[in-house]
Amino acid sequence: MAVAAVIILLLLLIILPLLYAGPLPPGFSEALLTTAFFSGVASVISLPFGLATALWGRSPGRAFISQVLYVPAVVPPTSVGVLLLSAVMSPSKICSAVGQNCDFISNALYAFFVNKPAGVLLAMFVMALPVSYVVFDGALREIRAEAYFKSLGFKGAGLLLMILLSLRKATISAFIFSFLRGFGELGVLLIFASYPPTLSIYIYNAWLIYGVGPAVTASLLAMGVGIVSAYVVRIWFSK
Predict the structure, then answer these.
(1) Per the UniProt record, which residue ranges are transmembrane (predicted)?
(2) 38-197: CATH architecture
(3) What is the DSSP secondary-structure string of 156-220?
(4) Rounded-to-integer distance, Cα 125 and Cα 4, Å
């Protein structure tokens, strides 16, 4: 069964698509670097938030509330994009309910986030949070680092930093998986922040404008990034 699974994926995702590969449209390297930058920054930012929520959620009565971090991972990404878009436009609705006009706030938020670098970063951060939370939540079930560092007098940001440093494998794993999540995201970015174009948006546009061949080539290169990253993760876990 294992061999069959490998063969099926090789055929469906690499060998057969190669028959349609065509020249890449311009902009691939820029989209790749843009994705790597924003996904990397969003992943780093998500680490302390994911760890803090995992620690907070271990207290009685908080576990259910902390599960809200799962939401971006279990609903359609397009839904997350729609919700983010409506969130930045919400001041107008809130103010109109009390007889005020706050359109200028909504317009400013829209201009700052929608189809802007800040929007790409926000979207990737929202999608990275569940990954960081899940990794740290699992790691903390096995390792009692929190109690140890608290006994040494650490608290607040210092406590988070010491736990991050002590859970090196979990921290690096959370970063890598969050980083890769940014490469695979299309739905949120398509609705909320399609510019500057990330790799998923680049592939989507290549499909619409240039057809199957260029989109296949870009997709195969993106898959190469994923395969190499997955191998790095496997080597890391085997240490």
Answers:
(1) 31-56, 68-89, 109-136, 186-204, 216-237
(2) Orthogonal Bundle (1.10)
(3) HHHHHHHHHHH-HHHHHHHHHHHHHHHHT--HHHHHH---S--HHHHHHHHHHHH-HHHHHHHHH
(4) 36
Question: For residue range 113-171, what is the model confidence (pLDDT) as tens digits?
Answer: 999 999 999 999 999 999 999 888 888 876 666 666 666 666 677 777 777 777 788 88
Q: Tell which residue, 189, 98, 180, has the closest CA to residue 132.
A: 180
* Residue whose token pair is 């009390």: 98
For the chain, the average pLDDT equals: 86
- Write the pLDDT tens digit of every residue in 85-115: 999 998 888 877 777 777 888 889 999 999 9
Q: Smallest Cα–Cα separation from 45: which of 145, 102, 121?
A: 121
Cis peptide before 77 (omega within 30 of 0): no
pTM metric for this prediction:
0.86
Q: Residues with Cβ < 8 Å from 100, sequence gap 6 or more?
A: none
Pairwise CA distance, residues 55 & 103, whole Å: 39
* Residue 112 confidence (pLDDT): 94
